[in-house]
Structures are given as structure tokens and as C-alpha cells.
Amino acid sequence: MTTASGLNASFAALADPTRRAILARLALGEATVNELAKPFEMTQPAISQHLKVLEAAGLIVTRIEGAKRPRRLAKPGIEAIDRWLAMLRKALEKNYGRLDGVLAAMEKTK
After folding, report:
1. At 91, phi and psi to the nearest 5?
2. Residue 53 contacts residue 13 (beta carbons within 8 Å)
């Protein structure tokens, strides 16, 4: 998902701390709804709602394995966020580079 609406959905999904914690857990590997629900004081249906939001945002995918439905991170969704953040990092580096130049020029005039 590389469109602006895709990024909007991704960042809206990331706005919730429970969903960020779920993504952090999935960074360690696949997990079922019950496995994901364990550390939270909420019901399995509540966790399922969070998973639906993450999946709609393109951040996770579901694999069907018999009766199990393990979730994992969705590479395209995570990479789209990473590309957007890389653009910001590049802009910051450019700004800091200019600041370094200004500071170096100020040191020379002292």
C-alpha cells in the first residue's frame, strides 16, 4: 500500500498502543489470536477487532492452517511505512548537514 490513503490507514492503525504492541509481538513471528490476546486484559473478540484494523491497513496478513488462523506482518505494508520514514530521515539529515555547515562557519569566524 503506497497511496496516501494507505499510509493514512497505516498510521491510524498505529495510533493505538494495543495495535502497536500486537505488531511488536508479530515482529517475533506468527501468532494466533489466542496467543496475541494473552498479554492483554481484553477479550479475544476485542483482539480480533484490533487485528481486523491492522489487516485492513495492510500491516498484517492471515494464513489459514486448518482451524488455525495465524497472523504475521505484511511486508508490503511495513515497507511502505519504512519508505515514507526514510524520506523524512533523508530530509532531517539534509537539515542537520546544513546546520553543521552553519556551525562550522561560525567557529571559523571566532
Report:
1. -65, -40
2. yes
pLDDT grade, residue 1 (50/70/90)?
Answer: very low
* Angstrom distance (rounded) from CA 47 to CA 45: 5
- The model's pTM is 0.79
Cell readout for 31 is 501468532
Residues forming a β-bridge with 73: 60
Distance CA 92, CA 13 (A): 25
CATH of the domain at 53: 1.10.10.10
What is the tally of structural domains in the chain?
A: 1
Cell 530530509 identifies what position? 91
Would you say the C-alpha torsion 16, 20, 22, 23 has a positive or negative sign? positive
Within 13 A of 65's CA, how many CA atoms are on the CB side?
11
DSSP-assigned beta bridge partners for residue 68: 65
Q: Which residue has the higher pLDDT, 42 or 103?
A: 42
Domain that holds residue 50: 4-109
